[in-house]
Specification:
215 residues, alpha+beta, Aminopeptidase, 7 helices, 9 strands, 27% strand, binds coenzyme A
């Protein structure tokens, strides 16, 4: 998605970078896990399909048809401690997960659906998921004009349910068919203030000097 293709967001525990071809092999390895497939409601892809997926994201960028109406914003989540020890490429060894915003409702451009995955087991439970979500919410509010966020989470996914509830998301629907809960955060002025305070340390930098990576 054009808006975040060349930016890097530097937080305390995580660094968010655009999804590039360099990240595909590790991402593909993660998604072989049946547990992660179940928790993220994802279908397994072949490595070639995963590269095609990443390229189509770039091609959307180049076609320019999403400038005013982005449909998806994806960042790879890097472990900031590892990244600080070795900033820049290769980033594969710093990868912790990903975080996405989907603008699914064309009738309501202020609504975004958020997903997050901290895939590396050694990176879980250290606050990386929380900071990645906060940074993405702040990005959505300040850069994309979003005011409502939804998260669809499996009924039994206790870690994710707890994390989003700690971030002030509230349950608005339950689908017994999909065994899924919808949580929502509506960002009015106090929540906006809170969000900006939580992310006031975040720095935005050009990603690799703003140049596109080779495909
Ligand atoms: C859910 C997930 C993103 C949490 O990320 P994380 O970095 O491990 O979480 P954090 O360290 O930021 O923890 C935030 C809060 O989440 C809750 N939480 C995290 N792990 C938990 C666990 N294993 N059990 C219960 N609650 C947990 C806690 O409330 C925690 O706050 P606390 O540390 O003050 O108790 C991560 O476990 C994950 O990616 N799981 C697999 C994929 C997935 O389920 N994605 C969500 C689909 S939308």
């Amino acid at each position: 998605m054009r808006l975040n293709q060349n930016i890097l967001l530097l937080g305390k525990k995580v660094v968010l970078v655009p999804y590039t071809s360099e990240h595909v092999p590790r991402y593909h390895e993660w998604m072989k896990s049946e547990e992660l497939q179940r928790l993220t409601a994802s279908e397994p892809l072949t490595l070639e399909q995963e590269y095609a997926m990443q390229r189509s994201w770039r091609e959307d960028v180049d076609s320019g048809d999403l400038i005013d109406s982005p449909s998806e914003c994806t960042f790879i989540v890097l472990d900031a401690d590892k990244w600080r020890a070795q900033p820049g490429p290769p980033e594969e060894s710093c990868m912790a997960g990903d975080v996405n915003l989907f603008l699914t409702d064309r009738g309501d451009p202020t609504l975004g659906e958020i997903e997050v995955m901290i895939a590396e087991p050694s990176c879980r439970g250290r606050g990386l998921g929380t900071e990645a979500v906060l940074m993405m919410l702040s990005y959505g509010v300040t850069k994309l004009g979003l005011t409502t966020f939804e998260a669809k989470i499996g009924q039994d996914n206790e870690p994710s349910l707890r994390m989003f509830q700690k971030l002030h998301f509230e349950q608005v629907a339950v689908s017994s068919v999909f065994r899924e809960v919808t949580l929502r955060l509506t960002v009015s002025q106090p929540q906006r203030q809170w969000l900006l305070e939580q992310t006031s340390h975040v720095q935005e930098q050009p990603y690799r000097g703003g140049t596109s990576e080779p495909l």
